[in-house]
Design goal:
187 residues; mainly beta; six-stranded antiparallel beta sheet
């Protein structure tokens, strides 16, 4: 009976010790709560640079021009006066990123005087207006169409009256197109 009594005391001591350890652990443990806010901030300033546009005309006697539209340089207006088939005007239009983050240029939206429009997003995209073809060459944007901060690249937009189309019934005296820059976040 002495052995059983000793064993009972030992079990009670062990249980009390175990409870003391559990209470001690609970007293010294605590929950760590972290709260905070993450903010991503960037400035967007992707725009055309109309003052640096170069125009190549064929023949050189046709009248072709470009003007900025609005305050933000997000749109420009290109004009060409074609008089016969085979004439063209090529506009090399710089696009610049003065924002604080890399942007992805997704293309140009071209709109004719009558409101018809098309999104030109890649090399050899074509918008036909009457007999006049507007085509976009994005060769300088070949790698992902991205513009890093302070980077400038050129889009080349060609307006042409194809020589194989000699109909003059669908040609305005002055071809006017509004070009809008489309861009987004580079992800």
């Amino acid at each position: 009976m002495k052995k059983t009594k000793k064993r009972n005391y030992l079990v009670i001591v062990l249980v009390v010790l175990l409870l003391a350890i559990a209470v001690g652990y609970a007293a010294f443990s605590s929950t760590l709560t972290i709260t905070g806010t993450a903010t991503a901030k960037g400035d967007w300033d992707v725009h055309f640079v109309p003052s640096e546009v170069s125009i190549t005309k064929s023949p050189t006697t046709i009248d072709a021009s470009i003007t900025e539209t609005g305050d933000s340089s997000q749109t420009v207006t290109v004009k060409a006066n074609f008089t016969e088939p085979g004439q063209s005007a090529q506009f090399s239009i710089p696009v610049e990123n003065k924002g604080s983050t890399t942007a992805k240029v997704t293309g140009l939206k071209i709109t004719a005087k009558d409101g018809s429009s098309a999104n030109l997003t890649g090399t050899n995209d074509v918008f036909t207006y009457g007999v006049i073809k507007a085509s976009l060459n994005t060769a300088s944007f070949a790698t992902g169409n991205t513009l890093a901060k302070d980077e400038k690249k050129n889009y080349t937009l060609t307006l042409e009256w194809p020589s194989e189309n000699d109909s003059s019934s669908n040609v305005d005296d002055e071809m006017t197109f509004t070009i809008e820059l489309t861009y987004g976040q580079n992800v």
